[in-house]
Amino acid sequence: IVGGERAGKGNFPWQALTHIHGRGGGALLSDRWILTAAHTIFPKGSARNNVSLDELTKEADIYLGHTNVDELHKMGTHPVRRIFVHPDYNPNDEHNYNGDIALLELKYPVTLGPTVLPICLPDTSNTTFYMDGYMGYVSGFGVEKNFLSNHLKYVKLPAVSHEKCQEWLDTKTRDKPMVFSENMFCAGFLRQKRDTCQGDSGSVFTVLDVESGRWVATGIVSWGIGCAQGYGFYTKILNYLDWIKGIIKED
Amino acid sequence: SSPVPRKLFGEIRSPNYPKPYPNNNISSWDIVVPKGYVVKLTFRYFDLEPSETCFYDYVKIRADKKSLGRYCGQLGSTTGNHPGRKEFVSKGNRMHLSFHSDFSNEDNGMVIPYKGFLAYYKAVDLDECDPNNAAEDGEGLRCQHICHNYVGGYFCSCRPGYQLQSDYHSCKVECSSELFTEASGYLSSPDYPHPYPEDLQCNYSIRLEKGLSIILKFLEPFEIDDHQQVRCPYDQLKIQAQGREIGEFCGKKSPGSIETKSNEVDILFFTDESGFSRGWKIHYTSERIRCPQPVPRDQFTIIRDLQPVYRYQDYFIVSCQTGYNLMKGNQKLLSFTAVCQADGTWHQPMPHCEIVNCGNPAELTNGIFSYVNEPASNIYQSVITYQCNEPYYHIVTGAGGDRYTCSPEGTWVDRDGQERIPTCLPVCGKPDKPVVEVQR
Questions:
Q1: Residue in A139, A201, A203, A222 annotated catalytic
Q2: Which of B389, B425, B435 is nearest residue A11 as measured by Cβ atoms?
Q3: Is A39 a catalytic residue?
Q4: Taking the mean position of all CA atoms in its chain, how far away is CA B192?
Q5: How, if at all, do strands B236-241 and B264-270 pair?
Q6: Residue B403 and residue B414 in contact, taking contact as beta carbons nearer than 8 Å
Q7: CA–CA distance, B330 with A139 (Å, rounded to integer)
Q8: Is A171 in a helix, a strand, or coil?
Q9: How many residue pairs bridge chain A and chain B with CB atoms within 8 Å of each other?
Q10: What is the spatial distance between Cα A204 and Cα A196, in angstroms, rounded to a whole number?
């Protein structure tokens, strides 16, 4: 997290620290599911993408319940039973993070408490949270000024309208433009140094739904061009509710 | 003479009947019916030449070596001897009929066409038991004790305590192995209430099915030789039940009624060579043996349809008040029935009722249960409520709510009787300490 603050105990009790191919984040759903980004499981262009899901399931380390990485490691991991990666995600297309969403099912439900609590999912029809300027919080154990954070940080970022994102993205001429699909949204600032960064992938962009008084996950840290050099891009959870519920309900 | 076939009935008619009978005819018939029957004969039609003392034409009837009469004439004629509707009955099983006509049937030079007769006979049972039908050999009564007549014969029997001898007529004291198996009956000293014979060794055995208790009721008069000082030195009446001596009796004081509580009773009666006492008579009855009145072992036990008396093969069913289990020792019973046995005991002891214990309520994952009533217990009608570890979980219950009661079936059930316990579902998006911004 760049330009953020240290999270206090119990601020983001849904925050998971993942260690699959490298450090990542995730969010607890219910008491046995971790929502994260597909590219933390199958990184783009990685030579190791031929590793089987079973293999990854065994390797994946998931931590919950603390804001300090060392403490988390001391608390031990939560073994994973199954991994579901969205079928639209293509690890070989480095310019397209569409479908960058995955679910990890924990082998054993976790006992909830002040430091371990699930995040809510948005109501299917609620697009308010994606309106331009709607403030959200993103927490993560990712890089801040080239250092992997040892403490959970969070930053407050506004969602940005699709047009602005696309406009800004178009200025970013590159050999091959990045795909900005309907299933994504962007957030952050053009000039302020507040953003998410590597290592935050998989963490959720949350907003406080004032009506229900609940914190709701609206996005998943997915990609960006550099860190704090413009907007960050998030997977739009609203578009994947059916997929998520299909898997969780099935269980 | 033409013997009549041994039938039980038949007709006899004069020669040429119903045409006029011939002159100078002598015919006779021997009617024989089976032993044990007598012959009864009547004339359906009778028309013979009348004459004083039936000198010319006549019918003669004989039975038992005696004449039953000589008959002739016409109905209403002044001379002759018309039999009319008279019934001729033999004493034995034979009857002889003879018919005689003389050389003519003229009257003043006129031939009268007398037709003769049509007789009908039948065998009628001989009541050998009727004293008037004493045996031919004049030996007096056919049976020494009791005569039983039946159609076509009779048989003899003897009074209780006597046995019919091989002559089927005479009776000799025989009471050494009288067996009674009916549910009730009478037995008495031989010839009661007349003095009993001397030198008796009588043994009357009453054998009923198991489970019955024999009651002996002595009838009046009760009279057995006795002695002022010595107990029953002459004649003794002993009563035993399954080998157990119930009593020895003599004298004039009736033992009254004795409940033997046994289905097997032996009555032994020994007499010496003399005496004129009239003996004894017992009316025995039986009733199903009684079992002790069932008594519940606690106030939660219910005896269904409690009866004032329980007898052999009766049974009672026990259940418990709601919320209590039938227990036999440590074993829980689904039902209980006790049957009164032949020996007057119940086939199994009374159970007791133990309050239902539902055991510890099911643990609620991520929640707890707490007892509503004090002291906390898991017995019938105890109440608990489930809560989840708020605020991290919230409770989801069935329609029956979160209160559970220990049911009579031994399970914890909610208001709707459902056993399924609530679920604690994670509460999402409610951090204890959400990020709060102060400075603006």
A1: A201
A2: B435
A3: yes
A4: 25
A5: antiparallel
A6: yes
A7: 61
A8: helix
A9: 73
A10: 11
Instruction: Outline where DSSP puts E strands in A107-152.
Output: 135-140, 143-144, 147-148
Q: Kindly provide the ipTM of the predicted complex, given to two decimals.
A: 0.90
- Shortest Cα distance, chain A CAs vs residue B391, angstroms: 8
The answer to whether the CB atoms of B428 and A209 lie below 8 A apart is no
Q: What sign does the CA torsion over B282, B283, B289, B291 have?
A: negative
**Could you give the CA distance from residue A229 to residue B238 in angstroms, rounded to a whole number?**
128
Strand A135-140 with A204-209, pairing: antiparallel
- Judge if the upstream peptide bond of residue B193 is cis by omega within 30 degrees of 0: yes
Q: Catalytic: A181?
A: no
pLDDT value of residue A251 = 47
Tens of pLDDT, residues A183-198: 999 999 999 999 999 9
**Between chains, do B431 and A10 touch, taking CB under 8 Å as contact?**
yes
pLDDT digits (tens, 9 = 90+) for A122-152: 987 778 899 999 999 999 999 988 888 899 9
DSSP label at residue A131: S
Chain-centre distance for alpha carbon B298:
42
- The continuous run of DSSP H or E covering A163 comes out as helix A162-171
Q: How far away is chain A from the Cα of B365, in angstroms, using its nearest Cα?
A: 9
Kindly write down the DSSP assignment for every residue of B58-116, as one continuous string. Answer: EEEEEETTEEEEEEBSBTT-SSSB--TTPPEE-SSSEEEEEEE--S--EETTEE----E
For residue A14, which residues of chain B lie inside 8 Å, CB to CB? 428, 431
Residues of chain B with pLDDT > 90, as a percent, come to: 67
Tokens of A182: 């309907």
Give the pLDDT confidence score for residue B108 in this predicted structure: 78
What's the DSSP call for residue A179?
A: B
Phi/psi class of residue B381: alpha, beta or left (left: φ > 0; alpha: ψ in -120 to 50)? left
Q: Could you tell me which of B397, B399, B419 has the C-alpha nearest to residue B407?
A: B419
- Phi, psi of B30, deg, nearest 5: -110, 110
User: For B146-169, what is each residue's pLDDT tens digit?
Assistant: 999 998 889 999 887 788 989 998
Chain A residues near residue B430 by CB distance under 8 angstroms: 117, 213-215
| Secondary structure of residue A47 in the 3-state scheme | helix
Smallest Cα distance from B396 to chain A, Å: 14
Nearest Cβ partner for A120 among B366, B429, B437:
B429
Q: Do the beta carbons of residue B430 and residue A34 sit within 8 Å?
A: no
